[in-house]
Structures are given as C-alpha cells and as structure tokens.
Amino acid sequence: MDRQRSLRREFLSVLIETSRHLRHFVDQRARRLGLTGAQLRVLAKLSRREGATQAELAEEMEVRPISLSGLIDKLARQGLVERRGDARDRRINRIHLTAAGRAMSRKIDGFREEIAGEVLQQVNDAALMQASGVLDRLKRQLKADTRMAAE
User: Fold this and answer.
1) Distance from first CA to last CA of the chain, Å, rounded?
2) Residues 12, 18: Cα–Cα separation, whole Å
3) Rounded Cα distance, 53 and 83, in Å
4) pLDDT digits (tens, 9 = 90+) for 46-91
C-alpha cells in the first residue's frame, strides 16, 4: 500500500514538473515567432474556432475571460486578430483572425508538429497511446472534481 501511494505521489510530481518544463520549452520556441506561449495557444485555438466569443474561447482554454482579454488585446495590436460585433447581438464581440493571423496560424501548425517531434522523438507510439489514455482519464476526473467542488 505504501509503495502504491509513493508511486502515485511520484507520478504526480513528475507530471507537474514535466508540465512546467514543457510550458517553458514552448514559450522559448514561441519567441521565435514573436509570440508568447499563451498567445500561441490562443491563436491555435482560434484557428479551429474562428469567430468564437471571448467567453467561448476562455471556456475552451479553461481560463477566465478577463485573463484572455489582455492576450486578445495584444494579439489585436499585433494585427493578428480583430474583434467584430455579432450580427444578432450587438453586445457580443466575436474574435476573428486577420490575414496575418491566418498566416501565423499556418506557421503555428508546423511549429506545433516540430515541437511534438522534438519533445517526443524517443517515445514510441505504444507508450504515447498508453500515456495519452492515462492523461485523458486524469483530465476528465479533474474536470469532474472541479465542477463538483464549484457546486
């Protein structure tokens, strides 16, 4: 029993540390594109959800809308995104990629593939599938636990 507890603690410790290192690695690489890692994630998400509201993007990215606002402001100043009013509800702004934003999104797609190849080059497909399954179960459990705690 102690061995199992120790193994679980070690797994979570390694997971947290790996996540921190991966975020730092992505942030460093994102600077090559003139972006932060957070901006890169917003553009990647927006490329799949063109015209989403800030609230929708925040929910999908699991951040607060106010946290996303500054990122969107900076991306807008860089000419990569723009806010447009909703055709049916003037109170709502939808976030769209500009032409420069779409070009950057294409670069990001290649960039993400490059990062995945670099980071995971020594991990075989079977191990990736197993790890993905474990991480997906953890994510679903944590999301459910978070929802229950909020109620």
Assistant:
1) 32
2) 10
3) 9
4) 999 889 998 899 988 888 888 899 999 999 999 999 999 888 888 8
Question: What's the CATH code of the domain at 31?
Answer: 1.10.10.10
Neighbours of 6 (CB within 10 A): 10
What length is written for the chain?
A: 151
Q: Which domain holds residue 34?
A: 2-120
Strand pairing partners for 128? none
Q: Is residue 58 part of a domain?
A: yes
Asked if residue 132 is part of any domain, the answer here is no
Residues 68/36, Cβ–Cβ less than 8 Å: no
- Which residues are CB-neighbours of 35 under 8 A, at least 6 positions away? 43, 104
Residue 138 lies in a domain: no
Q: At which residue do the structure tokens 């995945």 appear?
A: 116
Classify residue 131: in a domain, yes or no: no
* pTM exceeding the 0.70 threshold for the entire prediction: yes
Residues of the chain by 3-state class (helix, strand, coil), percent to 5: 75, 5, 20
